[in-house]
Amino acid sequence: MSEDIKQRITPIMHLVFEDKTIVFSEELTAHRIEKWNSVSNIIFIAAIEKEFNFKFNIMEIMSLKNVGDLIRTIQKKIV
Amino acid sequence: MVLNSLYFLLFFPIVALLYFALPVKQRWKLLLAASLYFYCTFDYRFLALTGISIFSSFYFSLKSNESADENKKKLYLRLTIGINLLLLCVFKYYNFFIESAAQLFENIGLSFSPALLNFGLPIGISFYTFQIIGYAFDVYYGETKAEKNLGIYSLYILFFPKLIAGPIERSTNLLKQLNQEHHFDYARVTSGIKLMAWGLFKKICIADRLAYFTDALFNNPAENTGLKAIVGCYFFLFQIYADFSGYSDMAVGASRVFGFDIVKNFNHPLISQNLTEFWKRWHISLYAWFNEYLYNPISFSLRSWNKWGIVFTIFVTLTLSGLWHGAALTFIVYGFFHALGLSMEYLYAPYREKTKTMIPAFIYKYASILITFHFFLFTLIIFKSDSIAEVIQIISSFTEVSKSQIGIYLYHEKETEFVLSFVMIALLLVMEYWQRKTDNYLSFHLKLPSMVRYIVYSIFIIILVYFAVFMTNDFVYAQF
Lengths: 79, 480
Fold this sequence. Notes:
The structure holds two protein chains of two kinds.
Chain A: H1 2-16, H2 38-52, H3 58-62, H4 67-78
Chain B: H1 6-21, H2 27-43, H3 47-66, H4 70-107, H5 125-140, H6 150-158, H7 160-163, H8 171-178, H9 186-219, H10 227-258, H11 275-278, H12 284-301, H13 307-324, H14 329-347, H15 349-358, H16 361-384, H17 388-396, H18 415-437, H19 450-467
């Protein structure tokens, strides 16, 4: 399932962070992507919610440390 | 006891020597005792008040950590935030709001005499209150475990190098390090002392020299018009940068001597190409705090408003960050203008990207730096002025430049200081440039023979003492 999630969020990352060279990795963090800032982060979160058709809660968002955490949170939400 | 006082120059080496003489496990106790003493040199009467902040946040965070009930965790978080914000509001903002209310009522014909509080301010209250609230959030979000040792936790809040003016330390950084063992490291200690010396130089040789001219302007704008007003405003930008980054260098350097890495508050802000970049480089710990604990939750909850949710959140966050500096309308307007600038930057990002492709890259880059620099300069006039009327008075006087003002005789009684101020600003910029090129900018001399090295140290000390301005000026940010 995580492979499917990865395939669906990678194009969102490319679009929101305006960089098609971003290579997906679970260790990826905002610090390593130039246009991943506090503004684009909200746009990214909203785009993921739309793609997977659910809503995050604030606790889930504030405890994310990297893309791996995001994948695991999405997995829990869509089972 | 401020960091640029002779008293501190005696206090610090004594604490450092005792620190390394003690067994490793006992050292935090000495730092706590030194920090309490440091606090009391400002006003010991507030110690009980700061104690309430420390003890309440310590206790509620422990309870939050122990509880599995989400509602109880929320309650403990709210109690910590409530108690600490209440104390901050009473001591820092009560007079401002009650006087503003009285003014408002007077305007509609209902006058009353407000009862004002004349307590003064506990030292560093804005900084430690935000650090405590950040800690409570970190415990609530599971970012950090609640500290079980009240002494270590108190040291985390009161650690003397950062008590007066930050940086606002995350628990994931300093608190973690306070629980680790730190051994004597010669290279670390000397690098910390050198950073402190450079910070002291920025404060007493650059910032305090520029203060001659900026104080003259902002204390009496009617007498300092035209070129004096223009030069005074530019000088204030460099003064506040040398002052605050000088303090931060001293705080980082002093912490490094003891073995701790605290966050850098500045990262070459004057070369920012836009405001978004500027706020990642200027007063980093404060704006990281606002971003983490205010901007992110609000913008997240308003994400259905799309871009207007982001704009609204920018205005709330930046205006409150302006108010954080003090209880005055000018600070609110300062924050508001930064919010306006950031919002425009966000809303017009596609047009800026288009412009970028239409003109040569180096022109775009330097034009962006100049625009950002001058926008910041404009907001600093608001920041420094006592009222909006004074801001208008100063800016409108820019056009009153007369031929007689041009030249080094702009300030007849202080020609030498005036010329020296430009030399000091140039030195600051050269050092900034050097620092961008290498992290070891204060270690260039290490490859020199030891004899030459000691000559370099001696020359630096002579220059420091000779060019220092001994006005016992406090750091600008110490008042917050």
